[in-house]
Amino acid sequence: MKIIVTSLFVQDQDKALEFYSEKLGFVKKEDVPVGEFRWITLVSPDDQNATELLLEPNNHPAAKEYQKKIFAEGIPATMFGVADIRKEYKRLMEKGVKFTMEPTEMGEVTIAVFDDTCGNLIQIVQK
């Protein structure tokens, strides 16, 4: 068994697509109409056949509540791995990404957390 798609609730699919592609550098893989919403997935530019990130609309009340509560508690919705966290932090800061935690060493890993402007905190990690 293999993870092929993981989803992230977003408040606005268009805004999320713009942020994740233009600011973070992910590549759009799928963008298919599904009723009033779309099936939008993105992949890492370094491995376009790897796990896809689905930008899932948070239109269901449970999804909205979940997203609000974990954000309010400062809990990242997901985590992305980076090779050089300080370099990535600088690159994202230059693109206007707002961090809630700058790179911080935690044992054998270094983490940082940013706001994706779509209702989520996202953690990046360097192992």
Automatic annotation (TrEMBL):
SUPFAM superfamilies: Glyoxalase/Bleomycin resistance protein/Dihydroxybiphenyl dioxygenase. Residues 1-127 form the VOC domain. InterPro entries: Glyas_Bleomycin-R_OHBP_Dase (IPR029068), Glyas_Fos-R_dOase_dom (IPR004360), VOC_core (IPR037523). Pfam families: Glyoxalase. PANTHER family: GLYOXALASE/BLEOMYCIN RESISTANCE PROTEIN/DIOXYGENASE, GLYOXALASE_BLEOMYCIN RESISTANCE PROTEIN_DIOXYGENASE. This is Glyoxalase. The lineage of its organism: Bacteria, Bacillati, Bacillota, Bacilli, Bacillales.
